[in-house]
Specification:
2,3-Dihydroxybiphenyl 1,2-Dioxygenase, domain 1
Length: 163
Amino acid sequence: MKRFHAHISVNDLQANIEFYTGLFGQEPSKRKEDYAKWMLDDPRVNFAISSRGHRPGLNHLGFQAEDSTELKALKRLAEVASGGEVLDQPGASCCYAHSEKHWTMDPQGIAWEHFHTMSDSLEFGVDSHAEGKACCIPLAESGAAGACCVPQDGPATRGTCCG
């Protein structure tokens, strides 16, 4: 069964951890110096926050798949919804996890991530698609297929991706 995913960029991680811990009535299931995640069961949500240099607010939305079969089904839906504009990111190391994933953009420019997590990672990852094993949030104006990414800190760039 899929789990809804929301990721919010924040300025003050500790203040937000306190807020969301109170709001959800439970401590984060994963907590790092720049990241926290709550795996909620009712409703089934993977809710994450990070202080990685992105603008505060909605970072991206998505669905976490239980297995590769669900991930493939989600990719087919993303391709239909986006007219084939999907950015694959196999072997990603992002958000302290090793995952298979892909991205697409909705008409408003909100990034949607579909992913299957295989294991934990000791590092957050880096915001660069060019290295192939990183966090990559595609930019609305570039389209997902020819995507560039939202870099960790600084303006978005085009080309190979994130400068």
